[in-house]
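Structure representation:
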Amino acid sequence: MGQKKLIKFAAIKAYENVLEYPVNCKGSWQAFFEKLQAQGSPTSDKIADVNSKESIPPHPPASKPATPLTLELACGRGEYAVGMARMFPDQNFIGLDIKGNRIWKGASIANKEGIHNVAFVRTQIDQITNYFDTNEVAEIWITFPDPQLRLSKAKKRLTHPKFLRMYQQFLQPGGLVHLKTDSPNLYLFTKTVIELFELTVITATDNLYKTAFVQSNQWNEKLSIKTYYEGLNIAGSNRIHYIQFKIDKALPIEKDEQLKEMIAQFEVTETHDAKRERGVKTNEN
C-alpha cells in the first residue's frame, strides 16, 4: 500500500465523522449526528457509542424529532454527500464506500468547513442492512457506481433487485432512490428492473443536462452537484443519465431469472472499469 494511502487510512481513524464497519448502530443515527454536531471539530476520540463493539441501546433517546437521513452509496470522494449537506443543513447525510482513501477526501472537506451533518461509513454495500433500521432512511443516491458490465457481475449492480430488497428494509414509505450515471448500459438495466417489477418512476432522462430538462419542473438543485468521476466522462457517452424511482412494490425473487434473460441482450458500453480490466491506463488518482 502506498505511503499516501497509509496516511489517509490513519487520518480517518481519528475522524469522528468516519466509522469503519460500525456495530450496534441501527436506529442510532439521529443521536450520532446530535453528538457529532455538539462536539464540533474532530478529535482523536471516536464517538464510541456507535463505532464501539460494546453493546449499546439500539434506540438511544434523541433530544428532537428525527431529522431526514439520506445515503450516498459507493460515494467515492463523497462529493454528493458533502454537497447535499451544504445545501440542506437541517438534514443528515451518510456516504458509504469500501475505499477508505477516497472517503478521506469528503470527510476532510467536511471537517475543514465545519459541516457536521454529514458522515461516512467504510463498509461493503452488501452489508448495508446491518447499519440502518426500518424506516430510518428517507432517500438513497447512487452516484456513478461501477456499472459491472459483464453479465456474470450483474448481481453486483447497485440497482439489481438483490440490492433493492436490501434498501426496502430501511427506506421510509415513499422513500426515493436516485441513480446518476454516465453508463447507458446501467441506465437501461435500471429501467428494465423498474419495469419488470412495476416500480414507480418519478423522473427519468438519458440527457440530464439538456437545456429542456434543466429548465423543466423535474430539475432540482441536488442534480447540479458533480462528482470527480462525472468530470472524467468515463463512458465517453457525453451524456449523464438520471432516474428517480420508488421501491413501492414487492420484489419476487422468481423474476430475477427473467431479468437475467432480458439483460443478456444489452449492448455493452466501454467504461473506465472495463478499460482498467483490459490493462488500459486511466487517469484515476
User: Anything to note?
Assistant: The longest strand covers residues 171-181. Confidence is low (pLDDT under 50) at residues 41-60, 270-280.
